[in-house]
Amino acid sequence: MVALLFCAQSGVYLVNSEQPDVLVVGAGFAGMYAIYRFRELGLKVKVLEAGSDVGGTWYWNRYPGARCDVPSLEYSFGFSPELEQEWHWPEVFSAQPDILNYANHVANKFDLRRDIQFDTRVASVHYLNDANVWQLTTESGEVLCARYCIMATGCLSVPNKPSIIGDDSFSGQVLHTASWPREPVDLSDKRVGVIGTGSSGVQAIPELAKQAGHLTVFQRTPVYTFPANRKSMREAVENEFKDNYREIRERQWNNRGGVSAFRPTRSVAASAPSGNGGGRSGDAGLIKPLSPKARQALIDARGLGTILNFADVYTDSEANEIANDLFRDNVRRLIDDPNTAEKLLPKDYGLGCKRQVLDRDYYVTFNRDNVEIVDLVATPIESITPSGIETSEAVFDFDVLIYATGFDAMTGALLKADVTGRDGRKLKDKWQDGPVAYLGLQMSGFPNLFTVTGPGSPSVLCNMLVAIEQHVNWIGDCIAYLKERGIDSIEPSTASETKWIAHVNDVAEGTMFTSPSCNSWYLGANIEGKPRIFMPYVGGFPQYRSFCDAEAAEGYPGFNLIRK
Ligand code: N01
Fold this sequence. Notes:
Radius of gyration: 24 Å
Largest sheet: 5 strands, parallel
Strand order of the largest sheet: 5-4-3-9-21
Number of strands: 23
Bound molecules: 3-acetylpyridine adenine dinucleotide
Helix content: 25-40%
Structural class: alpha/beta
Number of helices: 16
């Protein structure tokens, strides 16, 4: 018997055998792996992607200097030993073009593009009660339906472009780091202004300074940034990694940040990549018991990044202050002009509050003749004008204006997609006081809708590739379980959702992430009007995984499973 489903607003009848089992939104690493895994499970999958090709974050963030802060041998898929062995990473921490090459290689190798519809932005994601299907409508009006919908929309995929008086009036070129053009941008001899000094700004500024005639950096909040690892890949290290990949993947799954911290034994230890999911790469003991001389001696011997490896910096506010002072003292030495140095040094919040930023020559860039910094706290932007930026103190003229102003993180893409669940309930209403979800995987009232690395999961605090594989595997296994047993829908109970959110908040409480002086995108503090809630799960990947595994092993007790 052929069942017909009615895709209500489209007026189109779809034969079951022709429609996908699963619609996935997004062809970044999450959507790409979903195709591979769901095909393995015998599911028909279709991915809708706004961009013209695969890669997600690495497709859009093409700004000069863009680079990953997790070693590439670890920031790579673990599902295919053949893929692990054949791919060569030129550097220990890869630049954006190399990561995008890898994404393309994966897409080619597994023939992923045949299940991806590119240049397709999803405008709405609606659950149709009677048919028990998700109906996705694209911006061009196309309507698609499937029983299961996976939002693989990324944690940092909606660029934040703050609204500033006159911002439409600028007559030069306007760029955003998170939607950088695919064609080369020629900045030679140009007067360039850049707003924002988070990870993107800090990575881009040294490169922009080399390319531009003059660069003016508009900084609202100074950043704690540490020198990044610049090693090119050594054959011996790569080989040893490849020889031990199974152990490395196992270690990743048992590490709180999803990095193995594997150290090659057969090669020179100093040439090994170090795990750096959030900027921390080892253990230097406690900072507080050390004398000032001993602290400085450690930094002189091991480098500035040693500060990040003192465990008490993240848990003890006194230790945190010591570390902050030490950071400032050491950075002052790098910057020629003391006034510029004082502008660049953070003083109002501590290390560990924000995602750790890593750089290549950030501070010394401000010693260049063609670079200046404007402190927006002292002299705020009053307006953007046809020729540039006017602050309370001065007028700046530009040919190019660059926003490095970050993202509406973690919830932005989900809320932008107009997700509407059972009985017409909007996700934006459910989340008006902050995201509520169970395990960052599902929301009550939204049956058969799954999020990959959603709020309430380790996501951005974990090696993303590891977090993605774990989520997609869990979702795939869950769908297979439902299909095998003829179960029509799954969604978390409100009780398990409420309990989980309380736990997510509990574990974040008392950490530097949530200290009152901290204003980070983890807390939604970068977006006006966004509720201040710590969104990722800070309890560590292994602990998180044990909750997910227990749900699956016990037949999903925290969820409502319904046969219609
Ligand atoms: O964004 P951000 P990002 N006027 O939000 C400023 C990942 N990432 O794109 O702090 C003036 O951190 C804002 O100032 P303030 C990584 O997870 C990873 O840089 O709000 N300024 C801030 O300086 C990272 O954490 C990598 O006061 C305004 C900046 O813009 C995340 O992406 C590389 C403003 C935004 O910083 C986000 O980083 C790049 C306004 N109205 C990104 N509005 C790596 O793997 C905002 N700002 C290394």
